[in-house]
Task: structure prediction
Amino acid sequence: MKLHEVFAHAKAENRAALIGYMPAGFPTKERSQQLIAAMIDGGVDIVEVGFPYSDPVMDGPVIQQAAEIALRNNTSARDVFDVVASSTVPTLVMSYWNPIERYGAAKFADDLSQVSGVGVITPDLTVEESENWINATDGQGIGRVYVVAPSSSDARLASVAAACSGFVYAASLMGVTGARTSISSAASELVARVRRVTDLPIAVGLGVSNAEQAAEVARFADGVIVGSAFIKLVQESATFDEAITAVRSLAQRLAAGVRRS
Amino acid sequence: MERSSIIGHFGPYGGRFVPEALIAALEELDAAHQAAAIDENFQNELAHLHRTYTGRPSIITEAPRFGAHAGGARILLKREDLNHTGSHKINNVLGQALLTKRMGKKRIIAETGAGQHGVASATAAALLGLECVVYMGEEDTKRQSLNVARMKLLGATVVPVTTGSRTLKDAINEAMRDWVTNVETTHYLLGTVAGPHPFPTMVRDFHRIIGVESRAQVLELTGRLPDAVLACVGGGSNAIGIFHPFIDDENVRLIGLEAGGAGVETGRHAATISGGTPGVLHGTRSYVLQDENGQTVESHSISAGLDYPGVGPEHAFLHDIGRAEYRAITDDQAMHAFALLSKTEGIIPAIETAHALAGALQVGNELGKEAILLINLSGRGDKDVQTAAHYFGIPL
Result:
């Protein structure tokens, strides 16, 4: 299935799509593949594979720690592609810009499409700096997903959304990734403002960790993104089998959450 | 003056690589900086502070006994070490702190390596009544415990950063995370000419005073321009400050001295231009110490203030077009120059600055006794006494 078909399918069911994040190479390459399989098994519609980076300024402590472990395993672009290849649902990569630039933007887009990757989320790439990336992705069928924030002006939202393909990533709050106790009202306001400038689906991420929050976000967004909550389960599990079970179970609860109307 | 048609870029370098959440704040800051640059009231206020608080203009000191070791060249030291708080950092900090007040923000955050920028930021915050939080790598809080105490005495909160390599690079990451979260109330008072636009341009503009003053001082003292201007380069703020007013003086060589650590060939260094490759780090495209996967590599230097795997984008550009030269100075070469200036001139420089002095020894010997060399004496060495005593085996 393609990315837009997943969103269309979810919409037809009157629900939001569930998007799960896991860094490649955490805690090892094979195990990140198994964790992603468990997320899909539990009901995740779309997967985001994180490309671990040494200086993740948009990430809170949970994802930072996972990235450090993945980097100790020398996780490379090739490993990221291998993890994407193993996923059985539409899968994007989430990557800070420098690893992509270093690999070569055109080659990255090309190699990602070889393993059926559907897009890349680029949290620190601004539209002004995107010329190479737009050239690299146009014609490859690779979605360009930029992140917008509550602080974005309306003009800014319009120009960023215009550069997006696949969906628009709306940050639910001003801050870094990681679980929060509640969803800020900024999220629904931001989604409403983005709706006025694009017809693309809008997915909300940052701070969503449980079924109640997923249900709340699903009422106004087309996609619900969960990352840190999955990783935290892995970090807190005594054994890897326990981690697999916990990740699958959280995905099931979140999948039920996005279906609650 | 930008040497590129696109604002915020220096040829292929510079720009903005940041979370979208920060764009509004960067645009606000850019507008405030541009408005202040042509606002007489702002310029007068800053000039008044520099006269009555910083201690500007800083003087020029001739260093003939040191010069005897530099091929007999005439050595002129621009004494930024005599500024309040002991380094050039105060020039930028006062400028940005005034801008913070103009933008109606009440809280500043800063990163620091050696602690000089942190101390300068805490000082400006105390002076102007702002809340100040300084992020400092845990490793650096141990290496520079005296500066941690200074910042606390000045009323700042010092947050030890325990992620990654626990040094300056990670302190910047943590400051950026704070900024993304608190951007509405908080200004990130970045301490060098790196980071997203407008920082490289704005921080340079606040440090240009070093070059503007010293160009006139050298002309008055010697009747001509110097043959070379030398400065140490970590992020590159003191260097760009003294270089910039000389850029159009084509016969003046501009020489940046990077931290060569144990030697560039060993891989244990912080010489980003000499030993790095183009990439993106901390919001800007420039030279970066990185591996084949685009992951930042840890830098190494005896000088905490130069121990950074990035460098300002304007330096990358000046290097590529051949207008400035960059050389690596090893820890040992820097410490030799550190001891030499102390013993020949009675001036203990910062270890950062000692890299520029080691460069002066090289360049003086290359050019001979007719040459005039202007060196930015960017900071004083009081903070480095412990490191130096350890290095030279002086019991404490």
Chain B has a mean pLDDT of 96. The interface with chain A takes residues 15-25, 163-164, 169, 173, 176-177, 180-184, 279-283, 285, 288, 290, 292-296 of chain B (CB under 8 Å).
